[in-house]
């Protein structure tokens, strides 16, 4: 990361013309018609919890944010488009169609800037609102995009985008930088890109990596079993999906109502915390008695469940095990709100909230199946089958009503185990990839322009 940032700084210093414009402080944007919507948020986050054997507590971070299609705030969107000739003409036309489709989802409060790049970067137009006049300008500029010879130099484009933000005379509630490229090398530094925009407070960075059929088989592609998403990187295996993905991403940003969510779990000295598993958000283990969960942006109706499992010493007789402090800001104001959620002891053995345990085992099924596939070796097949058997034995010990809700997961593990036992020399496919991909397609269907 240090070498990447050093390269970026050197590049920024060499772009004299752009730097001079920045030093002269010349505004490089157009302010939209201001329209700020307010939404009354009191306690937007619930914490459900459960434990078994008086030793393991599981917290589910749940958002009380129903889908609100009429609520939209302004977003500043900058798209960095790689026009290097590794992209073919057909893919370029589909990319341009996706951008045009995106225009229909943006409002007059949103602003857009498109920067194309290969060896150098060119800004097609400054950051401008999506009013009727500017829509025509944007559509014409998109039609004029053509492929050009040269290497994909993302650093030039990031420099132009960063200075574009610095020269703003007006800021929308949320800023987002989106990279669209077919350069597989972009994976190496993708996580470092955000460092360039570290001064942007309410900020989202997203990279859409378009893969050709040949690239999908390339050893350069970092494959993560059962997942096509890695941090800020979204791997797009078909350009036809790009339209839905861009519109979905923009709509989520338009409906982001909470920023800088912080959840602090505090326990007492008789019940220290040992972090055992986590899912979703950024987790910070402060000390044996405090853990913090943070999330930058939260939007209406698009939130995954966040789970955190804490292994505790045997529960003592005290009424309160721990206290959870929730604090957040609304994207339409800088006022920070805070409230407390006490977690009390359970009066009888068993599970407090069964839905929490269902979510836990659904998430665990994905990680355990991935692990069984990763450890596959035809000469040591017992390593993989042992993982599958252990998961099934855990499910067998759950209450019947929870097991009924996990029938899909149970069936997939049973099938995988039988396939391994029948033919140890045949590696199986991860069944949850198809299951979860179908759910993603259903989620993106409303944004499909076909």
From TrEMBL:
Organism domain of life: Eukaryota
Record-linked SUPFAM superfamilies: vWA-like
InterPro entries according to UniProt: VWF_A (IPR002035), vWFA_dom_sf (IPR036465)
All residue ranges annotated as the VWFA domain in the record: 76-261
One Pfam family, short name: VWA_2
Descriptive protein name: VWFA domain-containing protein
